[in-house]
Amino acid sequence: MQKDWLALKAPAKINLFLRVTGRRGDGYHTLETLMQKVDLYDELALRLCEQPGIHLRCVGSALPEDKGNLVYRAAELFLQTVSPRVGSVPGVIISLTKNIPVAAGLGGGSSDAAATLRGLDELLGCGCSGEELASLGLRLGADVPFFLVEASAAFATGIGEVLTPVAPLSGYSVLLVNPGFSVSTQWVYQTFALTENKKTSNIKNSRKGLRGVGVPDGGASDAVQLAAMHNDLEAVTASRYPKIEQLKAELVANGATAALMSGSGPTVFGLFADRQLAEICQAICMHRFEHTYLVSPLPEKR
User: What Å distances lie between residue 228 and 19, 100, 146, 213, CA to CA?
Assistant: First the structure.
């Protein structure tokens, strides 16, 4: 029996490493990155309704509830795409509760969009293939295809859409610390690109050390060691926001095995082999940073 409503959880992600390998003619940057989902979730509820259109509500948030929201655009794109096969498309009510900080390098918007695509496919019984959903997701954002795959961790190339599942990170607790300001992904990449034609090109430099990285056969833990927890975008964001480097140093000083900025930032995460040390560091950080979360990497789905 077809459902008329659905509740979904959209996880955050961290980038265990990120290297920019080039820039395409359309302006998109190509990457090699290892992404890991963690158990910090946004919550979505989708319900079909008789009133045509998309009715988005962002619970307890000042986020836009129209085309300015990626969830709205995901729903609009999906309904437009499947309307020839399902005939009359009903309206949909979407309730979004944000727990993942916005513009934080944690992929919250992309994860929400992916959950919307999957949810509408299930509600309407369209039976879209994984490839079809991924194609729609890529039109919304480069990270969306990652959140559409079942894998908890994946090595991504291209602009982020060529995905190879890998064994997820294990043996660590992850402390996320968001310093309380937003960073524009577009600004970070544009700023990164400013020096690409100079002698000390960012993109040229980012390629150094890529030899041997490849797809990590041993999984995320091996990749962390191999890539030395590097993020090409960190220098750009940290140049404007020194708090990034300060937070990394503080996490390591309080017991983190390693610390890194995720994505385009500004969220910094520390990997703790000792859960108790992670909890102590969490208590220290929470006094100054409201958006501090102690999470775990999502395990491999069985």
Answer: 12, 26, 22, 10
244: region left, alpha or beta (phi > 0 left; psi from -120 to 50 alpha) = alpha
* pLDDT of the residue at 2: 62
pLDDT, position 228 = 61
Return the pLDDT at 247. Answer: 97
Same fold, 5-165 and 173-295: no
Which of 13, 37, 98, 243 is catalytic? The answer is 13
CA atoms within 13 A on the CB side of 224: 21
| H-state helical runs in the chain | 70-86, 108-124, 130-140, 144-148, 185-193, 202-207, 220-227, 234-240, 243-253, 275-286
Which tokens hold the place of 127?
A: 């039976």
Segments of the chain with pLDDT less than 50: 1, 197-201, 203-216, 222-227
What is the three-class DSSP state of 123? Answer: helix
Top CATH class of 173-295 equals alpha beta
Which residue do the tokens 């100054």 mark? Answer: 288
> What letter does residue 40 receive in the DSSP assignment?
E
| Six token digits for residue 176 | 């996320």
pLDDT at 219: 55
Q: What is the pTM (predicted TM-score) of this model?
A: 0.90
Q: Where are the domains of the chain?
A: 5-165, 173-295
Annotated catalytic residue: which of 42, 121, 143, 232? 143
The contacts found for 158-166 with CB under 8 angstroms, 24 or more apart, are 158/30, 158/31, 159/24, 159/28, 159/29, 159/30, 159/31, 160/31, 160/33, 161/134, 164/215, 166/34, 166/215, 166/216, 166/219, 166/220, 166/223
pLDDT of residue 254: 97
143 counts as catalytic = yes
| Domain at 5-165: CATH code | 3.30.230.10
13 included as an active-site residue: yes
